[in-house]
Model the fold of this input.
Amino acid sequence: MRILLIGNYVLDRQESMQRFAVLMERELKAQGQLVRLLRPEPYLGRLLPVGSGLGKWVGYVDKFLLFPWKLKWVKRKYDVVHICDHSNAMYVKYVVQSPHVVTCHDVLAIKSALGEVPQNWVSKTGRIFQRLILDGLKAAQLIVCDSEATCVDLLRLTRRAPSSATVVYLSLNYPYLPMARDEALARLDERGFDGRTPFFVHVGGDQWYKNKLGVVQIFDKLRASARPQSRLLMVGKPLSDSLVEYIATHDLKCAIVQLADLSNEDLRAAYSLAEGLIFPSLQEGFGWPVLEAQACGCPVFATGRAPMTEVGGAAAVYIDPSDATGAAEVIARALKDQEAIRQSGLTNVLRFGVAQMIEGYMGAYEKVANTQKGN
Done:
């Protein structure tokens, strides 16, 4: 089958979405499919920093004015077009006459733009952008969601027929597995972090739903009640000023370390040595860190709601993110069975192999191609 994958604008630095598109390209080619990964080229975006006010609008020219012309020309050579990230659903109108699939990773930004998430304010231009995405999702031929939770929200927001959306779970986007202790220690030593002292880890961006304040509050309670020597390694973008201030005023500066730009192997090292992943997200589309941690033998302590419960299964320990004291008590009790949790997590990961993901997507491609032929 000839498959055209639509990836993300590189200068937007949406790393997880870039990794997903590359993963799809690699694994589909390994199955013998003819695949091309097409992204909007940063022609004008190279002129200005994309994050700046003017730079953002220059990037829009690349993505919304120049790229559609290329897409309309290239799509004709392929049997199926797969838009790999729902945030590019505005491209649906350019491929609507071709068999096509859109992957919906989450609808958190759409819900925020519609006022369903009061704590996450969205600007006027942001609301317009999310409306374009929602319109594209409504018009798409078939949508593949990362989780049942996302699919339920998607169908509610788009009012699509249940048969027009399906669920295909993601696989790991990197071969995470336990790392030998000496190698892991050496790797973290190079990053200036001593993994010999017990520590917990959190992995996540700076989005509101990652609940980084909740992570720190739970760790604070856990440290005070059961793990006084433990530290917290926070992996991701630099902490906000308000969170840095909270850490300082609660005398946690010596116990919390923040590291950015860890390689996959450095992250493997952290997961392999950590006492556990603390992951009290308020919402997620899938929750890759849950799977990554389990694959490395790291116990997972996550929010007890979907999709975290879908991904972590019976192998994760679930907490209430709004109750820091209660969450710390749950974690402290669970640590007594740490080895059993590790082994259970390693087994759970087997449900998310790359073969099942590619099989699910091939089924989706064949469905839209056959439907189009029938018309």
In short: The longest strand covers residues 2-6. The radius of gyration is 21 Å.
